[in-house]
Amino acid sequence: MLLRNKFFYFSFLYFLHFSVFSQYFPSKNYSTAEGLPNNAVRALFIDSKNVLWIGTENGVSRLENGSFSNLDQSDGLGHNSCWDITEDPNGNMWFASYGGG
Fold first, then answer.
1. Which of 16, 27, 86, 99 has the fewest Cβ atoms within 10 angstroms?
2. Predicted confidence (pLDDT) per residue in 13-60, tens digit
3. Which domain holds residue 52?
């Protein structure tokens, strides 16, 4: 019985530790209603200027100062479907697509 009580108290304190010291990271959800070209997000990247780039099935979005600007094939993307985003040492942005460049 004493061992059972010790186990209970140990378990209680152990799980209490996680609930007291856990972290909360605020988040915000965006969709086409806020300006994304598509809700199917395939890539996220924060560049050296702290701008968030979002690759979707219908193009690339740039979130800066709370507003979206969108890029697609008419702006020079090889294909609208963007699967990866990176930045080279010169600050140029590179977008990888499936089936077009």
1. 27
2. 676 555 555 577 888 889 999 999 999 999 999 999 999 999 999 999
3. 39-97
